[in-house]
């Protein structure tokens, strides 16, 4: 699976994401890499349109020869895209969930289909489906398929050249602002509990986790409390570990 050739292809795709690239061309590279990695009969990248229908955006040559288009957009492939989860017909001669799909796949010489969701921030964008010649087994691990699906999501969401020039600057500003807020909150806890900075930072993590907050959200709440009503800090539930 993760042979030197596949690793090189993954590195090339990742590097391409940092350059000016054509999305369709990169998706074709992703599909081709999946095809080679799994020794597949075909690979399809299906994408959900505005109406929620799945459309075959990119296919490898063997998959394009499929006589039944449903093999590219239905069954586990559609399920994976809509439910943002891996979906599988492990053996097209014995599947009971997608009988029609499995029968058509078997007639086309496909032994198994495994679809990996393409998602961004929890939202389904589509799926990357591998059509294998033989039934699916544990010798075909998911790591390559999942990684390629994630790279496809990045390719689809990374934005235009102008967006990509602006986003790093905005991201840097956000990171620096968060760093200042975390430093303020850590200093508050260090002074309140008479701790050094490292111990105070660990305390901040514990307090945030106990409240189901991220460190950043907790730090913001703590700094806001001190800014508004510093006299309430010592008795605040925000600093209570009991």
Question: What would your notes on this structure say?
Answer:
By secondary structure, the chain is α+β, with helices and mostly antiparallel strands. It contains ten helices and five strands, in the order H-H-E-E-H-H-H-E-H-E-E-H-H-H-H. Strands 2-1-5-4-3 form a five-stranded antiparallel sheet, with helices on both faces. Strand 4 and strand 5 form a beta hairpin. Helix 8 (161-193) packs across helix 10 (215-228) and helix 9 (197-210) crosses helix 10 (215-228). The longest helix is centred in the C-terminal third of the chain and has 33 residues, at 161-193.
Structural class: alpha+beta
Estimate the global geometry from the Cα principal axes.
elongated
- What's the total number of strands? 5
Low-confidence stretches: none
What is the percent of helical residues?
40-55%
Q: What portion of the residues fall into strands of 2 or more residues?
A: 5-15%
Question: Between the first and last Cα atoms, what is the distance in angstroms?
Answer: 50 Å
Major sheet attributes: 5 strands, antiparallel
**CA-based gyration radius:** 24 Å
**Widest sheet: strand ordering:** 2-1-5-4-3
Number of helices: 10
Mean pLDDT, to the nearest integer, reads 90
H-E order: HHEEHHHEHEEHHHH
């Amino acid at each position: 699976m993760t042979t030197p050739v596949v690793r090189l292809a993954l590195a090339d795709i990742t590097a391409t994401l940092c350059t000016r690239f054509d999305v369709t061309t990169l998706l074709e590279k992703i599909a081709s890499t999946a095809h080679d990695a799994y020794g597949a009969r075909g690979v399809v990248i299906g994408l959900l349109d505005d109406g929620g229908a799945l459309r075959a955006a990119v296919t490898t040559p063997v998959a394009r020869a499929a006589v039944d288009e449903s093999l590219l957009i239905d069954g586990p492939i559609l399920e994976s895209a809509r439910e943002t989860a891996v979906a599988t017909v492990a053996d097209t001669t014995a599947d009971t969930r997608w009988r029609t799909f499995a029968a058509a796949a078997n007639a086309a010489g496909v032994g198994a289909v495994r679809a990996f969701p393409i998602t961004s921030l929890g939202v389904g964008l589509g799926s990357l489906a591998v059509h294998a010649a033989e039934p699916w087994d544990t010798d075909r691990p998911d790591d390559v398929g999942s990684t390629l699906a994630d790279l496809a999501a990045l390719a689809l969401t990374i934005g235009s050249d102008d967006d990509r020039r602006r986003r790093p600057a905005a991201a840097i500003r956000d990171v620096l602002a968060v760093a200042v807020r975390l430093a303020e909150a850590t200093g508050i806890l260090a002074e309140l509990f008479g701790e050094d900075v490292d111990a105070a930072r660990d305390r901040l993590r514990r307090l945030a986790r106990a409240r189901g907050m991220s460190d950043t959200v907790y730090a913001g709440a703590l700094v806001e409390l001190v800014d508004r009503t510093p006299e309430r800090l010592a008795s605040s539930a925000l600093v209570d570990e009991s």
